[in-house]
Structures are given as structure tokens and as C-alpha cells.
């Protein structure tokens, strides 16, 4: 049995940390990260202001990402996923393979839409998002005005598109909540989803 979880987020929303913690709690769990599919800087477009356009799908090898996900779904046991059972695993979720796909542009990409079991979207208010972004080191480094000129507007555009899509079932999570609270909620929700798959 397979369960595919999509974790999406505004930049620095906490999705990677959440995904890693879930991996340690769930049986036969693996992660595919969208960040691993960025094109090299030389292939990323630059706009008229000189901003590198990283927060768009064209900055990523999305075909390769979809292939990786499909290959995992076809044969999760050969993916190198650790099959040791985490402590305190419920008996009814053993013999299940779980894939968490985490990234920042997942739900507006049509070829991925049929693959999900659950979708989560971590949100942050502007000031907190900007503060967290300023504490991270990026390669290449953010240029002055990059957050306000490109990153935040792209996030708002993407989030608005999601909210306007009535058929898209997304669980919006408050990224300002503690990691423990978010982890507890998502873990419980995944266990419920696994129970539904078993029925």
C-alpha cells in the first residue's frame, strides 16, 4: 500500500524540517525534495530588474521530478527507503510505504495532481517570512530587494491560484505554530489517511 503526501510552503515556512521529522515517525517513509531539481544558475531566467526568477516552475527540472516520484511509486522497496519500523508505530500502518514530496511549487503543476493522497500548505505572514528568509544563506545570494520584488509576489500569486481552484483540496497550516504542534497535527492526519486506505 502506498501513501503520497505533498508538503508545500512559502519560503522558509518549515516544510523541510516537518518532512524530516515525519520521516522519523512513519514506517517505510521516504522524502523527495523539489529543491533537488533546480536548474543551474546559468539556465535560470533573469527579469528586467536583474532578479533571477527562481520562484517559478521554469527554474526547475519538473519532468525529472515527476519521473523520480513515479519511479518511487512503481517500486518503493528499491528506493533505498529505510524499512526499520519507528518506535511506537501502530500495527495497522506497517507494510505501508509513504512518500513525502516537499517543495514550494507543487500544486499548480498538472502532472503531479493525480499522485497525492494529502496536501498540506504551510503559510507565514509577510514580516515573519521576510525575517526567516534574512537568516538563511542562499547560493546565489539574494540580491537587494529580491524578497519584495520577486519571492513574496510569486508566493501570493501562487497561493491565490490555489485558493481560486475549487477542486483543489489543500490543508492550510499556520507556519507560526510550534514545530511540535504542526508535527502532531500532520502525523495524526496521515495516520487517519492510512486507516482510510486500509478500509
Automatic annotation (TrEMBL):
The record's listing under Gene3D superfamilies reads:
P-loop containing nucleotide triphosphate hydrolases (3.40.50.300)
Record has Oxidoreductase as a keyword:
no
A molecular function GO annotation: ribosylnicotinamide kinase activity
- Keywords noted in UniProt: ATP-binding, Kinase, Magnesium, Metal-binding, Nucleotide-binding, Pyridine nucleotide biosynthesis, Transferase
The pathway this protein participates in, as annotated, is:
Cofactor biosynthesis; NAD(+) biosynthesis
- Going by the entry's taxonomy, the superkingdom of the source organism is recorded as Eukaryota
- Recorded catalytic activity of this chain's protein: beta-D-ribosylnicotinate + ATP = nicotinate beta-D-ribonucleotide + ADP + H(+); beta-nicotinamide D-riboside + ATP = beta-nicotinamide D-ribonucleotide + ADP + H(+)
Tell me which GO cellular component terms the UniProt record holds.
cytosol
Q: Which InterPro entries match?
A: P-loop_NTPase
Tell me which Gene Ontology terms the entry assigns under biological process: NAD+ metabolic process; pyridine nucleotide biosynthetic process
Pfam families xref list: AAA_18
Family the UniProt entry places it in? Belongs to the uridine kinase family. NRK subfamily.
- What is this protein called in UniProt? NRK1 kinase
The organism named in the record is: Chaetorhynchus papuensis (pygmy drongo)
* Gene symbol of the encoding locus: Nmrk1
Amino acid at each position: 500500500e502506498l501513501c503520497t503526501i505533498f508538503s508545500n510552503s512559502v519560503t522558509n515556512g518549515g516544510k523541510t524540517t516537518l518532512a524530516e521529522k515525519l520521516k522519523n515517525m512513519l514506517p517505510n517513509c521516504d522524502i523527495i525534495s523539489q529543491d533537488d531539481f533546480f536548474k543551474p544558475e546559468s539556465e535560470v531566467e533573469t527579469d528586467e530588474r536583474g532578479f533571477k526568477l527562481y520562484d517559478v516552475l521554469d527554474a526547475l527540472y519538473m519532468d525529472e521530478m515527476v519521473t523520480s516520484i513515479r519511479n518511487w511509486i512503481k517500486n518503493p522497496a528499491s528506493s533505498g527507503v529505510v524499512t526499520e519500523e519507528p518506535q511506537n508505530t501502530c500495527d495497522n500502518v506497517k507494510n505501508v510505504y509513504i512518500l513525502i514530496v516537499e517543495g514550494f511549487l507543487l500544486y499548480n503543476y498538472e502532472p503531479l495532481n493525480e499522485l497525492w493522497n494529502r496536501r498540506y500548505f504551510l503559510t507565514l505572514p509577510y514580516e515573519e517570512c521576510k525575517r526567516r528568509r534574512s537568516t538563511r544563506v542562499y547560493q546565489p545570494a539574494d540580491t537587494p530587494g529580491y524578497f519584495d520584488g520577486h519571492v513574496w509576489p510569486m508566493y501570493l500569486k501562487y497561493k491565490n491560484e490555489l485558493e481560486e481552484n475549487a477542486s483543489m483540496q489543500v490543508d492550510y497550516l499556520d507556519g507560526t505554530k510550534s514545530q511540535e504542534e504542526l508535527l502532531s497535527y500532520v502525523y495524526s492526519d496521515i495516520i487517519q489517511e492510512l486507516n482510510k486506505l486500509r478500509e
